[in-house]
């Protein structure tokens, strides 16, 4: 089992690494010092599980858990605060360990991780995205996103009058967000909940008008699927 340790405090990371060394079957694949680095390392390392601190600079461990790609690795929260336990289990945490971590509690958490195996049901789609853009870290609820626009290896996320760049291909992002995001063009997808009109254009194409007034082109290859989805939404 390859695990990722996420904590902004170096002594806490080092202690957990030492404690996990008691299990030869566990390999610490990496350590992250904040939420953004954690998401980058999850994408790069594909760990089997994450030991995740709750309180960190810029974004919390709960924000990280909500922004993990689908299907997400199981999460064990490790924190000095017990008041986040309910939110942690709402986020489908496997366990919730309080610092200082006791060996017996860590052993139970490891046992729970190992017992999940391949039988664990995959978690649902991400409900918010964590986006580092222009020197700032943004937590964007998916319901606030109007549409997604492909831009080379990035996706421009249009939400609340802002345009934020996320370094992910559009196809990969659509696999993680809720099903009411639908591709309407090779380079664009819309939030069906924000569609107010579909205006016909020539040769079977259309223009999708969103609640903000933004207009997104829809090619004929996706128009029928859009109309069907809106009828069933």
From TrEMBL:
Residues 2-114 form the Response regulatory domain. The modification 4-aspartylphosphate is found at residue 53. Residues 129-232 form the HTH LytTR-type domain. Keywords: Phosphoprotein. SMART domains: LytTR, REC. Gene3D superfamilies: 3.40.50.2300, LytTr DNA-binding domain. InterPro entries: CheY-like_superfamily, LytR-like, LytTR_DNA-bd_dom, Sig_transdc_resp-reg_receiver. This is Response regulator. It comes from Caldimonas mangrovi.
């Amino acid at each position: 089992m390859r695990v990722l340790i996420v904590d902004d405090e170096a002594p806490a990371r080092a202690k957990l690494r030492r404690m996990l060394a008691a299990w030869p079957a566990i390999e610490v694949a990496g350590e992250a010092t904040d939420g953004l680095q954690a998401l980058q390392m999850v994408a790069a390392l594909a760990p089997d599980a994450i030991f995740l601190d709750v309180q960190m600079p810029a974004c919390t461990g709960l924000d990280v858990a909500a922004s993990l790609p689908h299907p997400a690795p199981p999460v064990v929260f490790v924190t000095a605060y017990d008041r986040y336990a309910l939110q942690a289990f709402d986020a489908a945490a496997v366990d919730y360990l309080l610092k200082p971590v006791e060996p017996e509690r860590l052993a139970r958490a490891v046992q729970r991780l190992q017992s999940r195996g391949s039988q664990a049901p995959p978690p649902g789609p991400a409900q918010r995205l964590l986006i580092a853009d222009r020197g700032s870290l943004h937590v964007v609820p998916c319901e606030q996103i109007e549409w997604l626009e492909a831009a080379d290896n990035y996706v421009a996320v249009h939400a609340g009058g802002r345009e934020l760049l996320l370094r992910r291909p559009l196809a990969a992002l659509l696999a993680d967000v809720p099903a009411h995001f639908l591709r309407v063009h090779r380079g664009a997808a819309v939030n069906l909940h924000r569609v107010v009109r579909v205006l016909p254009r020539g040769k079977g194409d259309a223009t999708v008008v969103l609640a903000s007034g933004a207009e997104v082109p829809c090619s004929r290859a996706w128009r029928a699927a859009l109309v069907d989805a809106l009828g069933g939404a």
